[in-house]
Known about the structure:
Layout: H1 8-16, E1 21-25, H2 33-45, E2 55-60, E3 71-73, E4 76-82, E5 88-89, E6 100-107, E7 113-119, H3 121-132, E8 139-143, E9 146-149, E10 160-164, H4 169-199
Parallel strand pairs: 2-9
Antiparallel strand pairs: 1-5, 1-8, 2-4, 3-4, 6-7, 7-10, 8-9
Amino acid sequence: VKNSIDDAAELKRLLKGSGVLEFHILVEDYSSAEARMMIQRLNKSGPVVQSGDTMKWFQIDHPEDWKQAKYNYNDKFYALAYITPGKSMVNGPGIMRWSLQKAYPTMDSTGGQAVGFEFEPVGAGYFSDLTSANINHPLASILDERIITAPNINSRIGASGIITGNFSNDELRYMISTLNAGSLPAQLGETQNQIARAIL
């Protein structure tokens, strides 16, 4: 079975979420007035979102491996990311629906383990715009409100790309299965459409 998940606990965790995949540029300057205000709010009220916010706290899924700034609230770790157009890629009102087609193991230019991924055409266009406008900034891949990875954007990425890092076998498998869980609703939608066409 392609992209099979062997661990029952992992499968349960992935299916518990709704499989909502988003991409957001991470906040790097925590000394700005807005970032300082967000830190104060996190310490006081937790990761709440208010009208007019341009950034949002997202929980870090594996804080022990996190290399960037992180903030603790109730024994969970969070990082700030932008939620504004041009610094984020989400499915929502007024936006053509996009999806990740698949994620798979591959190798980087040095032969190290990496995660390959592919978008369908709409997603490829959005991702190209997002990455070309934010080169040399970290891009967080977020599934069900949790940051699963945040590599630096080295160049514009279109329909396909790779996420590099010093990944162990377990980390690689985790990232691939988690990203594929994010593409699951789109795959299910396509299957339902095919069934509907077959019935009609």
